[in-house]
Design brief:
25% helix; alpha+beta; 23% strand
């Protein structure tokens, strides 16, 4: 079994999954901001996978990543790399491009 891999990354640099190419749901983003504000305290790690090109794509946490990228620009977040993909993901839009 592989050891768990955690990284600190700028959420704006993370790629959005194909199913969420347009970014975070605006209603969910507003609801999250109303509840947590710009804080990352207690926020669980985002789950990401590494593409064959070394880039990271979000699998769980698009709204959390967008909230931090939008309201705390440049603030790193903890991500857990949960797997490796066989194809590149660098062509997918980033959180920073859609915030």
């Amino acid at each position: 079994m592989r050891p768990r891999e955690f990284l600190q990354v700028d959420p704006a640099s993370l790629h959005l999954p194909g199913s969420r190419r347009d970014g975070a749901d605006p209603v969910k983003l507003q609801r999250q901001y109303a509840k947590y504000g710009a804080s990352v305290a207690g926020m669980p790690p985002l789950e990401v996978k590494r593409g064959s090109d070394g880039e990271l794509v979000i699998y769980d946490g698009v709204t959390r990543a967008t909230r931090v990228a939008k309201y705390l620009p440049g603030n790193p977040v903890t991500v857990e790399v949960t797997g490796q993909l066989t194809g590149p993901v660098g062509g997918l839009p980033t959180v920073g491009a859609k915030r």
